Give the backbone structure.
Amino acid sequence: MRVGLIIYGDLNTLSGGYLYDRYLVHHLQSQGDEVYIISQPWRGYGLALLENVNIKRLKDLGYLPLDVLLEDELNHPSLFWLNRHLRSRVRYPIISIVHHLRSSEPYHPHIFRHLYRWIEQAYINSVDGFIFNSRATQQSVYRASRSAQVKPHCIVYPGGNAHGEGIADLNYLVQRSFQKGPLHILFLGNLIRRKRLDVLLSALMSLPRTDWMLNIVGRTDLEPKTAHAIHALIRRHNLRPNIRFWGPCNSETLQKLLRSHHILAVPSDYEGFGIAYLEAMAYGVVPIATTSGGAAEIIIHGQNGFLIPPGRSDALARMLALLHEQRETLAQMSLAARTRYEQFPTWGQGMTEARRFLQTVITSLT
């Protein structure tokens, strides 16, 4: 196949969505397919809308010898109008890879959420089919546009084996759970508002400082205001002795961190899926997420992790205190987390399914 992929910026950008796209590209290339990466500039939402009138971009896409064009839904503000004109010029189908909708993020002001919903609806109506990363994402797209329900689609879950196969030694997981000392808590995510590191910090403030240590892995430069607010919160409450910032980590370092931690706590306002939770479960790390989005497709509350309402630092604090005080419960949930990880397909299996879907789409729509 000859496949195009439209993204913003660099495919190696550190985020779950770009990780998903990279695995798909690498799998297609491993099967002998040609993949053309089309990078659009990201200048903020408003300026991104101007890409829709980029005549040169439209002509270039029309000349590409493709069998199918993939688009990361993140690019929707740059494509919602351009796609309509492109479809009249080309014969290849346009398939959107949807990680989550911007209009699903609850913290945007109402007027902006209305705007995002309108633009995303127009974008959804401009493509021929979808690759979803979860059922939650599929349902959010269906709610945004009824026309999406009749278009070809597949659900391809991310794999949890991006950083190795985790820990299969169950005795080690039990021993780690009963180690004396504080809970070792990991926050794995870029410092952006949606990930709600502030909720985690608020929960930790209510616990004795001897009960926890927190390691934070992810980029800190994406939302300077969010990062500044987080550091100010840490200084104001003198939390620094219990916290270490690692920045973005390579796979080897992240494996070491996952091996040594008890809990992954990322209380996001919304996650289309939540790759970090599944990656952590490979290492028997107990995930704590929220009830908003796709995390419930990974985590069974009270069995292999916890799901709390978004923004509820008090609920998060209770879960952390429970796992610190009841190490037998921590051990049981650690083992259950590892078992849950084993139930999910690997990246290779998932991307094989995605490639099979693209072949079917090409046959049926061209």
In short: The domain at 2-158+346-365 is CATH 3.40.50.2000 (Rossmann fold). DSSP finds 15 helices and twelve strands in the chain.
